[in-house]
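Every protein is a chain of amino acids, and every chain bends into a shape of its own. The fold becomes a row of whole numbers, each drawn from a learned catalogue of backbone shapes. The protein below has been through that process, and both of its lines are reproduced in full.
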Amino acid sequence: MFCILVAKCVLVFSKGLGWYTVNSAYGDTIIMPCRLDVPQNLMFGKWKYENPDGSPVFIAFRSSTKKNVQYDDVPEYKDRLSLSENYTLSITNARISDEKRFVCMLVTEDDVFEAPTVVKVFKQPSKPEIVSKAPFLETEQLRQLGDCISKDSYPYGNITWYRNGRELQHREGVVNISFNKQMDPATQLYTMTSSLEYKATKADIQMPFTCSVAYYGPSGQNTVYSEQAVFDIYYPTEQVTIQVLPPKTAIKEGDNITLKCLGNGNPPPAEFLFYLPGHPEGIRSSNAYTLTDVRRNATGDYKCSLIDKRSMIASTAITVHYLDLSLNPSGEVTKQVGDALPVSCTVSSSRNASVVWMKDNTRLRSSPSFSSLRYQDAGNYVCETALQEVEGLKKRESLTLVVEGKPQIKMTKKTDPSGLSKTITCHVEGFPKPAIQWTITGTGSVINQ
């Protein structure tokens, strides 16, 4: 009801239209058309808004005759209003407090027309972010995964959690989701926080977690997503394995052996118990244990286990390869021609070994055997043996055989076909090398030496 003083005070009832809604983004300019046809006998137009208790607050006035515009002294709208000739009201820098019911009023001498407009202001929230992230998740343990936070929203939005792109639903003791919203009294903008407690499994290894916030804007509902977060998943060791370095097929006496124990948990165990032949109680060590200068008596079963769960154990058999060679006789041996000389080359090894005989750098087809020594049997003999599967494992012993004997003389004569001369040849065999001289029988004179 509006009272106009002309010649007398007359009470008239306003006529107008139904409610109309204008949606605006936070910070934009709100534009509200009057939505009334301007009557020919218009005196002036006014805009007002209504307080929650229904009381009016006038904010703008425009005369139809003087064409001047007046803005009421309302602090929150100072320098923000603009009223056009067609009575469209614009409000710059939209705020949450602008969510009101505004009314356009066109006044004639005998009537008042009203058109209400409801203003809705929307503020897109910030991109959600996963914060307070757990350094790791542990299987079968309900742990705080993190908080999803999104700021400066109006109205407040709803937060959803995802695992590998699939929405997570609340499951007591497995997936616990809580939600909290707070409004800044100065800006009336909301900050939303959702906390996720999660019980991980090994299937969560390398799985991405994300969150989203669904909010309403001027054009309807929208959703914005966070960046992915991948968490380190801790899980207990389920199997223990043991490794031997160098490879156990090539270990020989004098080598160093490193036993390496591995657990398939995350993080892997840092310490183990190592069980060596003769040490059933176990030796506590890091995941590597080294034995130096091993001997053949180190051959046996080696094991390792978890410290706190000795039943989880792994074992391996290690053979320390060895090779012994004995040559009898060896060194330098002097024998007489015609003597017998038994020779033996005995090999003791962890595997079948090959044996090769050499004489004066020439390979023999068989082992030497001397039942009656000859001068040509003298020489340098070498017995060599090796394990082909084990690099560097070979042995050799040598025998230098010297064959001595009294000189043996053999003479031959050959007459020249002319009959004028004869050639006498003297063959002497012996060791050490004999001295040879010629004498003339009956005279004793030496003619050659």
User: Anything to note?
Assistant: The chain has five domains: 2-122, 129-234, 240-318, 323-405, 407-448. DSSP finds no helices and 40 strands in the chain. Confidence is low (pLDDT under 50) at residues 1-16.
